[in-house]
Amino acid sequence: MKKLIVFLLAILVVVVVAILFTSCEEQAGVYKPKKKIFKVYKQYGADPEYLVEEWKWNGKRLSSITYYYKGEFLAEEEFIYEGNKIVKIIDDNGLYAEYIYADKQFKKINFFDSDDILRSEITFQYKGKKISTITIYGYNVCKNVISMIERSFMGKLLSEKGMKIVAEKLANQSKDTFVFYLSYDGENLTSISGDGYDATIYSDYDTHSNIWYNFYPFTYYHSNFYNVFSKNNPGKETVYYGESFDSIIYNYTYDGDSPGTIQKNYFNESGELIHTERTRIEYN
What we know:
Elements: H1 2-17, E1 37-44, E2 50-58, E3 61-69, E4 72-82, E5 85-91, E6 96-102, E7 105-112, E8 118-127, E9 130-138, H2 145-151, H3 154-157, H4 160-170, E10 177-185, E11 188-194, E12 197-203, E13 236-241, E14 244-255, E15 258-267, E16 273-283
Helix pairs in contact: 2-4
């Protein structure tokens, strides 16, 4: 059961991160950042900062990521390549994702548990060279995964109310698919919506490079999905659900052309600050 819960969390994350596969200049599955990330730190409110990720590289290729929580080991992922193209990601629990391509575009991602049982398929539809629709097919979904997802970092990604909408849809035994629709302004995502989730809107982009552009881990451990959507870095994120909404305002400092620190300020519909979250990135 524990492995299934972890895997379902991974599936949910792909809904959010799959928009990274939209570069029209590079072969899908190739991650070539301008700077190589070394370590990533988090700080919530006035709490002490702690390490969450450590990246290892083999030349220009990312070889593995180790994940931590308050300095304690959580998991490690290994990246498998054909040439410069990622074809598989394996974690230390034996879960893995296989990436299937059609020419230079993603066609499908298959997720397997440690017993080589297929747990999810994700397919992509394009409008021109950009992904316009993501469809997720889930298998053997466990209903109690809702509370597990809400306690994970995903609960902070979409706001509490938005997270419940997505989690409940995933855990609903009566549906076996998720469909999400993506919109863009140039190389930056402007909205993602679908399947009972009204919309998340991104705006006020800067002109600096998003260090996570074209990066797509499949694990739920990764802590920076809010900033991996586009070529540049968003200044505002608004999450709608029914007639209500929450908003996130971003503040950056830069290391050259890339973010050195990212602060997220969460506000409710009344404009009241709920909490803050700070990410600090060290580069090789």
